[in-house]
Structures are given as C-alpha cells and as structure tokens.
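Example record used in the benchmark description.
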Amino acid sequence: MSTQSALLKVMSDAARKAARGLNRDFGEIGELQVAKKAPADFVSAADLRAEQVIFEALTKARPGYGFLGEERGMIEGTDKTHTWIVDPLDGTTNFLHAIPHFAINIALQREGAVVAAVTYNPVTNELFWAEKGKGAFVNDKRLRVAGRSRLDEALLATGIPYLGHGSHARFLKELHQLSQRVAGVRRFGSAALDLAWVAAGRYDGYWERDLQAWDIAAGSLLVSEAGGKVTDAEGGTDVVAAGSVCAGNLEIHPLLLDRLRAAK
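Model output (structure tokens):
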C-alpha cells in the first residue's frame, strides 16, 4: 500500500515546497553559466532559502523536534528523541553547472535510528520515500533492489574525491579492485540519489567515503526498506555516524565489501 502516513506527508510537503524555489533558481543558473558570472554565491543563497522553507514547514508541523541541517548545523529541540536530518540541496556542484541531477533529502531520526525518509529530485519529480517497517516507494510505486547476484553483471555508483576532499590514493585502490570486476561504475554527483537508485534497482551497489549525515540518512532507510543492505565502508552498522557507505542487495553487498577490504 503506497498511502503516506501523516508523518511522511509532512516531509513530502516540505520537500515539494522547497523544490518550487530550487526549480525556479535552477532555471536561472543556466543563464548565469552562459553569462560567465560566478554562480557559486547564487547557489549558496538557493541552498539557504530551501533549508529555511524546510525548517519552517517541519518546525510548524512537529514543534520541539531537533534539526540538523547542512546550512545551519544542529538546533536542539525540546523533544530529545526526535531529530530531522536535512540536506536542502544534495548535488550542489551539479546544480551549479545546470545539470538536472540533485535532490532534497529529509530524514527523521528517532532515538538514534532513521525511521522515515524522503529524497526528492525536483527536476524529474521523483519522490522517493520510506518509513521503517513499511517499505520504500517512488511516487506511488513500490521499490525493490535489483536481483543481480554477481559482480560481473553489476552496475555500481560511487563518489570521486576532488580538490581538498577525501583520500585520492585510497579511492584509486578501491576503483582498481572493483572496475575490472563489474559491468560499469558511474559517478553522477548526488549521494542522496545514488542511494535512492540502489533502492530502485537502477544501481546494483554503491560505495562512497567522506560523507555527512545529511547525505546518507534518508537513503540508508530507502535501501534497507527496499530489501537491500547498507553498512559503512568497513561493514559497520552505524552508517549515519560513520560518514561512509556501502550499499547493495544481499548478494552484491558482501562482494562489494570484500573488494573494499582488499583495497587496503
């Protein structure tokens, strides 16, 4: 059944509301690119506006919940058991370059565990959502991870370290271990959508390091509710705190993890 609970409706409405501004700003970023002006400040303003819209919508609906956002950091709530984890624009570099692959990420953590998730790509109008124990969906369609069980059939997603971020040497070792054994590796530039696409069966697996809680909180629930497995890149279970991720179906996940360990 793909009927959203009141909680999911609050989260989806907040994401759609923020998306209206991002879609408008995304239309303008193409013009800025062509004009060769520096669009970075414009994007950070778009980011801040989107987070403000989400913050206001969620706070109005659930006063007292804590809020951890990429832009404003941690805001303690009177309700210590619940925290929203929000990335108003995951895939900022794509957005900056007028590439239509980015997402709004909203997760709810209850007593340390992610219990509800929304990942929304405003350009494609795909709303990925999940609630703990109730399955994962895109719009009104149920999600299942892919059924492939061998690395040589698998299409993987990853993130590539860039200027000033991450260990380039470690990434190249991991890529060496995996790229020669799989059907392909993709880097599309949004961790939120990488995880959503694993949940949707588009990717068979995904790994990345040097991530933040708001990049992976929502997606980790999407994958597990779609029948997949998510750990950190070392195989640990506290993905949100670890800041690294290894995700796939139950057959691909251990194979992926083995290769990551072999890359050390």
